[in-house]
Amino acid sequence: MSSSPSPDLPPALPPLLRHGLNPDPEARPFARRNYERLRLYLARALRSVSRPLAYNCCYMHVPKCAGTSVTDAMRSLCPLQKRVGMVLARPSRRATALQSGRPEWNIHEDGPESAVIFGYREHLMLYFMADDAPLVCGHFLFSELAYTAFGHRYRFVSVLRNPLDRLVSNYADARLGNYIDMPFGDYLDSEVGWRHATVMLRYFSGQAVIPRSGVDAAMAAARANLEKFALVGFTDRMPAFAEGFAKVFGAKLHLHHMRPGRFEKPKIDDGARARMEQLCAGDLEFYEHARRRFAP
Length: 296
Prior knowledge:
Blueprint: H1 30-47, E1 56-60, H2 67-75, E2 85-87, H3 89-100, H4 104-107, H5 114-130, E3 135-138, H6 144-150, E4 154-160, H7 163-176, H8 184-188, H9 191-197, H10 199-205, H11 215-226, E5 229-234, H12 238-249, H13 270-279, H14 281-294
Parallel strand pairs: 1-3, 1-4, 2-3, 4-5
Helix pairs in contact: 3-5, 10-11, 11-14
């Protein structure tokens, strides 16, 4: 006789990633964290009696491109009485894994089923935009639906970094977060390495995964979508980004700190660098195109 699960038993949970097992060597002291939190709330309180931003801001946070520091500066421009649309990476991954029943490793934004997590994040982005949040930010792909529905109220913004430097940081951070555990050479040969090497094309084209044969199509879509952004900055030109932000939104962006790297980067010889350049060829081309467009 077959038996069925009791309705009183809790559902089986999918495998979840283990976070926080490795110490963070760059963790800010308790006093520093509280000082920054106080400064943020004071700034938001002052914005509550100031002129609102000229437009709401949708900040597409491309991973490892100074996004945490930029987000903190943008949040300080949002009045306290308004909701800030923070699409946070770890909670959205865990919620998606629990709801879908898939292993968190698979639906991770760099996993084989990343379309699942990016679909969930698009829902969150649309939710916050529908709520008229003055700032919507996070690791989400460009959404044509969001642009079509809310482009009259929102201006789209992003920040980019040299793709080779960004790739190294992505690798080191993934190791620190227990997502991967492999030498750098093996990483460059892996599917995770390929997905990291095409992050800019993925985000700007709106495609969760780009097949190796699909770089040209993704490039065309990414270039077309780039024209829908009011502002794209570059990590080596952040003062210019702050100036551009003021012109678009009518408020000065105070970049108080740039968070330092939290990890030890791998040693890279000439052979590894050549492989990186080959892997990142699409992102390098797009990056140079974006610089010509926004930082001539």
